[in-house]
Structure formats: C-alpha cells, structure tokens
Amino acid sequence: MVAEVIGQGTVPAAYLLVAIDLLLSHWPDSHTAVVPFVACPELLCLDRQRVVGDNIQMPDIFGLKELQQEPAGLVSLESLKSRPSRRLTLDQLLDFYAMEEYSADRTVLIDLLQGAATRLGPPQKQSNLGDPEFMVLHALNRIDPNHWRKVIVQTADGPEEGWEYIPPAAERDHLKPLQDEMQERNANARMERFIRIALNDAGRSSKVFAGSAVKWAQEVANKPAGDETEQWIREEAIVSAAMIVTRDGGTDLIATHGGWIRETFRRAFKGKHDPAHRMRDGLQYNPIAIAFVGTALLLKNRFEMADVRTLLEAAGDDNPAAAQGFSYVAGILAAVDERLPRALLRCAFSACVHPVQQWGMPEEDHKARLEARQREVTGAIEAELAWLDGKQDEPAWPAFEPSHAHSRHHYSLSERRRELDDLEKRPEHYTDHQAAALWLGKAASIFDVAKRPWLRDLARAYSNWNGVANGSGLDEEDDPDRIPDEWNRAYFNLLARCLAGLTIPQIDELALGLILGLPGEAFFDVTTIFVRRVDDVYFNGTDLGDVEAVHIRTTLARRLLTSRQWEWQRRDLSDSIFTHLGPALAVLLFNDYGAFLPSKCYLLEKGIDRLPPFLPLLQELAESGPFLFMATTLLNVLEVSPRPAHLPLIFAAAQSWLAAHPDDTEFWIGQAIGRRVCLVIEAILRLAPNSLLPDQPARHEIDDVLGKLIRLGVAEAHRLEKALREIQ
Prior knowledge:
mainly alpha; 36 helices; extended; two-stranded antiparallel sheet; 6 strands
C-alpha cells in the first residue's frame, strides 16, 4: 500500500524523510524497509539536496547565534544530527541492491523504478541527477550488478578488494556534455574567485597572475555566463582583470593589451547606476570604481590626456560610483600631476548640481533642462582639460545651489517671509550634497595642507553654503529641521586639517566663526565632528600647537555651556543625556559616544602625555555640570593613565559632585562613581606616593573627599584612607 501511494507521488516528502529515520532506526532489515522510498525519484533528488544543505554553514555576520536558545522538548539539535538519515542519503542505499544478498528486494525495486520511469517520461537533454526523470534511470543502472566491477582500493589498513560503479554508455554520453559544461563553469568560477581576491589584496597577485587573468578575461568576454547574476559577476571579473593588469602587469603587458583594457573600462563606465555605490565602500561589486582605479593606474604608467579626459568624465557623471575608487588613487594622481585631484573634485562638484523637476512641468521641458545642465558640466570638464594643458587659467570652484534649513519648532516672521520669497523664486536647481560629500570624503588621504594649500581655498569656497545648509540664518537656540550630515563629516574633516600653521585669529575666521554661527542641535552635531577631527590632527602630530588646540576646544565648550540644553541638564541632574548634547560633551572630554554604546575615551597613554594644557577646561566643565554623564565620561579619561598632575582636577570634580549628590548612594555606589574616584587616586598613590604626603597641598583635599565617601559607604574609600596612613 505504501509503495502504491509513493508511486503516485502523493506523500509529502517531509513525512517520507521522517519515515526513513524511523525505518533505519527500528526496522530489522532496514534495506528492505526503504525499498519504497528509494523507488521515489523525487525523494531521491530532494534527499540529495537536503544532505548538501545540511552541510552548508551560513556566516554569522551579526553574532546572532550567541543569542539562540534551543527550546526544551523531546527533540534536540543533537538528536536530529544523530539520526541515521543524517549520515546516509537515499541514493547511497542504491548500492546495496546491486549485491546478490538483496536480489529479491532488487526485483521489487526494479518494478517500482520502472513504474516511476513510465510515469515521469524520458529525461530532457539538460536533465541531470537533480531531475527525477534522469535520476530514475540512474537508479536502475546503479542497482544492476552488471554495471559493477571489482577493483583494488587503498585503505588505512592497506590495499583491499572493493567494487566500482561503471555507468553504461548511454548514461556517460548523456552526462558528458553536462560534465564538460560544469567543468568549464567551475574553472571560470575559480578564476573569478582568484581575481576577486587579487582585487582586494595586491599581495595575492603577481605579474604572472595578471597575465593569466587577462588571457582568461579575453577568452570568456563574448561567452554567455548562465543567468543574469552569473553574467554580472563575469563582467565585474573581466573589469577587475583589466585593472589588475594595470596594477601588477608591468609596462609590456599594459602596452600589449592597452586597447582591450581601455575598451573594457569604457564599457564599465557606461554600466547601470546602482544606489548602493553611494553607501558601500570598496571596489568589490562596483565596476565603475574599478575602472576608475584602472584608468588612474594607466596614467601612472604613461601620461595620456585621453585617460585624463576619461577620469574627468567619470567624475562629471551624475552617478558618484567612481568616488569609491578615488580614495585608492588620490595620492597616485597627485604624484602624477598635483593638479589632477582638484580638477576631479571640481568636475564632481559641478555634476552634483541638478535641475529641479517643477510640478506641472512637461517632461520634455525637464529633459531639455537636464541636457542643458549636462552641457554645462561638459563645459566644466573642457575648462579643466584646457587648464591642465596650459591653455587657460585655473577654473574657480563651482557654486552649490543654496539649501536653506528651516526651524523644526516654529515659524518666525523673518523665516515666513523668506519662505514666501523662496516660493516666488522657485529655485531651478538643487545640490546633491551626499554625492559631493562622497567625493570630498574619499579625498581625505591627500588632506595635507602644507603640501596642498589649495585645500584652504576649497574650504573657504563652501563655507557660506555649509553655514546656510546647517541653519546659520536661524535663531541661536533654534533647531534646524535637517542638516547635511554626510557633507558635514567630510567638510569638517577637511576644515580641521586646514588649521595647521594658522594663527588664532585666522582659525577664528576660517573655522570657529562658522561653527559658532550654527543654531541649537546643529552646533552640537558639528562640534562633535570637528573637535574629533582636530584631535586626530593634534594628538597624531605636531602640526597644531598647544595654544591653538586649547583655544578651539575652549571656545566651543564655552558656547556649549551657554546652551539651553546644558542649563536643563545641569539643573535636572538627570541620569540620562540629551541626544545631541551627549556626543558633543563627550568629545570635549575626549570620548566617543553613540546612542547604543557607552562613552569611551579615545586617547591612549601617549595621548595623556599631552593632556595637561586641557586640564583647566576639563575642571571648568566638571564643576559646571555635576551630573552622571559628566562624571562617567571624565573618569574614562582619568582612568587611562592616572598622573599626579590630575589630582587638582580629581579633587575639584569630586567636591562638585559631592555638593550636588551629598546623600545619593545610587550615584556614588550604584553607579560606581565613588569606587572609580578612589581607584584613580590609588593608582596615583602607587605611581607617586610623595605627592600625597601629609605636608602636600593635595593631602587636605583628599582627606576631605575620603571622609565624605566613607560616610556614604564607599568601601574603596576606607581602603584608600588606610593606605594613606601607611605613608605618613
């Protein structure tokens, strides 16, 4: 009855697999028991796929496996893995039926398989072992004893006699074209994988590999690659092979294949636009960026204006995908010709200004405006080429279309009047500041203002636009409804690196005046970005002096101390922190802070060596804001490498916190502020015990602080007091 039902193909495969587990586990003669199941070609195919699937390990990108909890019950993952069907596939059971001892079962199985063959019909030309029509014929061949022969096989115990399956001619002839095709596909897949590895790691490439890659790419260029996804992967591998030749192949190989390389890059530049290119860093999956890098490397090998034109046209495309490649070759291009990077940036910025599609405007009119704008960009590219060729003066930085931020809370009369003016003017263009930010951000590797003074010209050119876009026209305590966050990150990184060598008045004029003119939350957000980048410059070199660095931090901190959010925070003494205030205050205290992560000091021990000039400002902040976030963030800095010079700051901060939280055990014990203060002082005591002798000014301060902490129940304070008595 079971065989009859299976032959009709009416039993769900999942139930059949469960039945196989039971039969293999409990049936006295398991091979006889599974005859009906083996006779189902659909189940044979499914079982092969299931076993392969069981062995596939998916990458745990987000670490979610650590959060998985197996539910309680009779069935567990281990019990499932121990089932016989997890160790043996149905098609492996076929081999047993070719043996003489199972000849009776073989006769039954042959009848069942022949019935299935009649039901399924003959296999198609492309049928393989994954198709029931061919699987049933393969099963009939495999259980035929005439298709087996004795062979000698090598085992761990030495040579032993075994059996080998010899497929009949019809099966071999059917599978040979498919096997040849699969062999070619596997060879191509291997080469594509090797090319992808070499693309991302030049150390895994070589001149020999570059030659092999270009030979393969030219052979498969006009061959189909299966489905659309495989074709896309093939095309990316071909572009990558061309780029690898320009990087690793040497002058002779480039000269031999130069025409093919440039044609390959040309096709890549005309490829489809993918919005993911704006967000995904790196070259992989971005043929346009790969072609951009390859063209820049052609210039490194031999300077040709045709290749310069190709790069400028790629930068002048409204698709900023090429910017992902700019980060890899900005320094190379500057070495080829110092003018190239800024010519590329100007072309890219020109392409970031687009016509607005006005409501009710005919599509033909909008298309005409797009074409007119493209002609303007083309004119900008020609102007850059003429400048590079010495035929005209350097072009100016292209202007961005103003982008006014509006109040998020209310409409003032002046703002309402401005909105009416905007409606009357109806701006015809807008600036894609995200694309501009991508290009500017990818140029960060050449942000050396000592070598490239033109970087300050770039910063000045877009200072006013940046202020307007961040709401500089709003009231000081207002909050803009939007800010160009991506542009801010790129622009203020540049601005921080333009400060080296400037006087304080020049720093005020170039940078601080712009930031101080921003309202509310925009000021906090920009301060967070700018101060962090200034610290990168200051603590990683000597290009920015102590006086200038302290002036920048102090000026921005004093503005923060006058904000309404600061006033609310210090009066409320809340355990939480305002969303925009938190990161700004953290960075002023040398901490990184995110919405989902606790604050963490980004200075290492060598950075603490340069901390003394900032200690008065840190003390001012600590005394002005005795709330929990201030305490935890300041202690993050002091715990990196406690020094005797930090003692006045520690005592001043502790006294301020004690005055604000005299009886708050949650603050001192629950939040561990008391323990952390004592541990910092204890570390200083071990480092320099003489700094806390009874005749030292700091001793009176520490005795007062410890007495209050002991009364609050901080155990570490009692231990520290005992240690201090021992050095008297």
